[in-house]
């Protein structure tokens, strides 16, 4: 009886007529969690030079890429339909794993804070992961400077942000120059603190060892500023609100029968919630990308949304390239050029006051990722250099990143009409080869593809669910 009840409940939450490839997101989230956890632990326990851990995490991310790619392939619905029962129960097991992993994370934090263990600095490292980071602090400070009538780019002070937002020194991005020029893979916390003390003693707000500039386009703080002006003291609530808006939009636009799936996907996305709690600020531009991509038939609105995303974070620029490639194939050259003009115009409208006021400072900030000597911290291919498997040459990874981008764009240009949503994965592929490949560059791809499929599925009747891009799906016969 209990087994029958469980089977009925599972079928109600994961119905027979859902596109089966959507269930792959749970497996992708699991491998994503494993890959991030392995490397986070390796970085924070000084074991990042362990080749076994690096290779293990690499294969987790490789499987992640494969699963997300398959999610975006419409023909997978037909292939997976014959295995829907097994796939559904596999998804249930993975969902249980993700729930237990979330509970385990909370318990582990409590255990660490209770002082259980042999590493005295572990509690600080764990707790510091859930505070403001330099991106949160810089955007919050920029919003406050704007509200005071100052140019956020010329009045940025990272050391002041440390004090104002109670940010640990470990959350500042170090640069491989000055006192850190001989360090690899990262300077120690003691070295970071020594540079901070020396900078404070010299009243130097811009020590060369720290990334001490506002590194994002103006949209990053313009949309936050009204909330700061209304008294928001912790802007992580703004980004939490963006997560809820994204979930609500997908929930609202998808068929009623699939709405429980939306809730489960967002609730079990551990990295998404860790991202917000850890002061990451990417979810806002990701929300704009999702809306711009899925509403691309509304040409002007779609282009404005993509332009706003580009005016908020540089990672959106790559998504714009794939968006324009898709529009070029769907709408033709003339229309795609108009859309490109709208995107560029939106970007300029948002940024032009700051560009005209201090062009050199604005440009230095926007291009910081390309011109500053970052350390190779992240989850991408550069960890092989840290482990001594590949040469530690930033130029090599830049070449690989460019090759990956060009190759992905060329492939997508010829295949996008058949696999349109693959562009949402290929847009993050070059970042895997980035010298400073942060996990946040990558792990929004499955959520974007999931959202795009769910929102397009809503255009079809519930009696014969199919996405606009896929073959009709028939009732399970297992």
Radius of gyration: 23 Å
Low-confidence stretches: 461-478
Number of helices: 24
Number of strands: 0
Q: N-to-C terminal Cα separation, in Å?
A: 21 Å
Q: What share of residues are in beta strands? A: under 5%
Shape: globular
Mean pLDDT reading: 89
Summing up helix and strand content along with how strands pair, one would put the structural category as: mainly alpha
Q: Largest sheet, if any? A: none
H/E element order? HHHHHHHHHHHHHHHHHHHHHHHH
Percent range for helical residues? 55-70%
Polypeptide structure, described:
It is built from 24 helices and no strands. By secondary structure, it is mainly α. It has a domain at 2-127 and 236-280 and 367-461. The relative contact order is 0.13. Mean pLDDT is 89; it is low at 461-478.
Strand-helix topology:
Layout: H1 2-13, H2 24-44, H3 51-71, H4 76-81, H5 84-113, H6 122-128, H7 134-147, H8 158-164, H9 189-201, H10 219-222, H11 225-229, H12 236-253, H13 259-267, H14 270-277, H15 283-294, H16 299-310, H17 316-331, H18 333-357, H19 359-366, H20 368-371, H21 383-386, H22 394-415, H23 423-426, H24 445-457
């Amino acid at each position: 009886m209990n087994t029958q009840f469980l089977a009925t409940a599972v079928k109600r939450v994961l119905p027979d007529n859902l596109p089966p490839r959507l269930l792959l997101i749970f497996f992708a989230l699991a491998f994503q969690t494993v890959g991030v956890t392995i490397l986070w632990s390796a970085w924070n326990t000084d074991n990042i030079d362990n080749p076994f851990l690096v290779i293990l995490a690499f294969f987790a991310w490789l499987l992640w890429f494969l699963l997300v790619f398959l999610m975006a392939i419409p023909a997978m619905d037909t292939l997976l339909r014959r295995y829907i029962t097994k796939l559904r129960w596999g998804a249930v097991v993975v969902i249980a794993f993700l729930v237990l992993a979330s509970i385990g994370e909370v318990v582990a934090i409590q255990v660490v804070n209770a002082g259980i263990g042999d590493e005295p600095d572990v509690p600080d490292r764990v707790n510091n992961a859930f505070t403001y980071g330099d991106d949160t602090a810089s955007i919050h400070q920029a919003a406050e400077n704007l509200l005071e009538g100052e140019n956020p780019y010329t009045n940025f002070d990272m050391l002041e942000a440390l004090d104002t937002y109670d940010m640990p020194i470990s959350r500042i991005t170090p640069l491989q120059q000055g006192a850190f020029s001989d360090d690899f893979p990262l300077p120690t916390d003691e070295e970071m603190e020594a540079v901070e003390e020396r900078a404070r003693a010299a009243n130097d707000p811009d020590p060369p060892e720290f990334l001490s500039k506002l590194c994002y386009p103006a949209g990053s703080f313009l949309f936050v500023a009204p909330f700061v002006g209304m008294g928001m003291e912790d802007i992580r609530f703004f980004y939490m609100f963006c997560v809820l808006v994204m979930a609500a939009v997908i929930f609202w636009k998808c068929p009623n029968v699939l709405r429980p799936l939306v809730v489960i996907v967002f609730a079990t996305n551990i990295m998404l919630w860790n991202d917000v709690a850890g002061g990451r600020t990417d979810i806002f531009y990701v929300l704009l990308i999702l809306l711009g991509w899925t509403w691309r038939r509304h040409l002007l609105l779609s282009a404005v949304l993509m332009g706003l995303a580009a005016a908020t974070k540089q990672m959106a620029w790559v998504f714009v390239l794939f968006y324009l490639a898709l529009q070029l194939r769907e709408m033709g050259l003339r229309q795609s050029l108009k859309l490109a003009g709208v995107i560029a115009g939106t970007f300029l409208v948002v940024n032009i006051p700051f560009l005209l006021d201090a062009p050199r400072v604005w440009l230095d900030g926007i291009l910081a990722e390309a011109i500053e000597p970052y350390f190779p911290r992240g989850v991408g291919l550069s960890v092989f250099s840290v482990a001594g498997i590949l040469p530690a040459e930033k130029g090599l990874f830049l070449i690989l990143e460019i090759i990956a981008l060009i190759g992905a764009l060329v492939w997508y240009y010829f295949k996008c009409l058949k696999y349109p949503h693959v562009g949402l994965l290929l847009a993050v592929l070059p970042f895997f080869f980035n010298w400073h490949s942060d996990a946040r560059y990558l792990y929004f791809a499955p959520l974007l593809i999931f959202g795009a499929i769910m929102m397009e599925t809503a255009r079809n009747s519930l009696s014969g669910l199919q996405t606009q891009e896929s073959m009709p799906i028939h009732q399970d016969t297992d």
